[in-house]
Every structure is written in structure tokens, then in C-alpha cells.
Amino acid sequence: MSERRAAPTVGQVVLGKRLQELREAAGLKREEAARVLRVAPATVRRMETAEVALRIPYLQILLPAYGVPEAEVTAFVTLAEEANRPGWWQRFSDVLPDWFSVFVSLEGAARMIRSYEPHFVPGLLQTEDYARAVLDAGTIGQSGGKEMIERHVSLRLARQELLRRPDAPHLWVIMDETVLRGRSAPARRSWAPSWTGCWRPPRATGSPSRSPSSSPVRTRGRTPPSRCSASPSRSCRTWSSPST
Predict the structure, then answer these.
(1) Is the pTM of this model over 0.90?
(2) d(CA 47, CA 90)
(3) pLDDT tens for residues 69-79?
């Protein structure tokens, strides 16, 4: 039995699409491109749709056949080699389904992330204790056991590293006000202090605004201000869990 294919990286998805565009611009069908490589048409299709890694020897044959200049072939191959490197999330393949692996890959390449969470703090903003409590109370806790929970907690904390990058994406989150007030069981068990201000990861800013039913929270890679609109009469709290 063959080993399960890891989810593609963003680079493999983008370059695969570009490979398809170059083939179509050259007026070639997949069957014709396959004959150039002496492989089945499915092999060409799988590279174009990022179902398999971009095979460098194949690229070095296909791209000139598509009429791509030599300098661009070299640049494309260099990008393909980089895109084929395993993503950090692939070490969590035991707990990360393929569909979510693609999401994590896209998340890491995003410039802006928008999220709506009516019941819980989003994963990118959860403390270690909060994440553990949420997972323990859900399906994973009921069926996976303690070891599985800890693996998921580690994955969730690893995802948060993108907010610490110098080029961190802009994060826009809308949460129901009940999430901030900590009425749910996971929040009661793990938040200290409770949500009366706003949480910020290191080197990020928060700008929550009050509305009748929700509180948008925006974060981006800058030094946090001293106040925000989350609570008009008190300063905005800046803190994170020891693990983050």
C-alpha cells in the first residue's frame, strides 16, 4: 500500500495552476504534453492540480516544450524546489486531516485572515489552557484521549506562530459577546483573568468595538496601543499565556 500523500503547499497549488496555463497558452492538450514526457495524461493532470509534487525533471522538459524562455524555466524550477519542501504542519499529519492541511498552508501565506466565531475564541487567539479545555469538551476529548488532545493543542499553538512573524497577516475576527464574557464551560475553566478587555498576541494590536451582538477584533504586527474601545472606561489588557 502506498504512503498517504501529504496535503499540497500553497506553492505547489499556485505553480500547478501556472503550469496548466502555460500548457494551454502553448495550445497543447494534456495528452500531447504527456506524450512529450512519455507518461500517462493523468501524470500531467496530477501535477497541474497539485495532487502530486512538482517533478523537477518533468518541468525541465515540459516548460521548453511550452515555449518558456530559458531564464523563466530556471526561475520556475527554483520556485518548484522550494514549493516541494515539506510544510511545518506535515509533522502533525497524524491529527491533521488533508482538507485542513490545505487550509493551514493557505493561512500561512495569507496577507489577511477573516474569521467569524459565534461560540469560541478562534484557534489563532486561544491560550494553551483554553485550547485544551475546548478540545477536551468536544469530540476529540471524548474519543481521542489525552495524548490526542495534547497533539491538537501543540498544532494550534504552532499555527499561532504566523502572528509573530515580521510580515504577520492582518487578522480580523468577529466573536459573539458571550465568548468575551466567558460564560461557556471552557472559558470558565481556563481564562484567568476573564475576558473583560482584549487579548493580543506579542507584537499585535487589538481594536475591538462593541455592538449589540458581536465584538470585532483586529490584530496586526505593530506595537499595541495603551487603550482600545473594548471597554470605554478602562484600559485594554495586554497579556498572553506562558506557553505563547
Answers:
(1) no
(2) 19
(3) 999 999 999 99
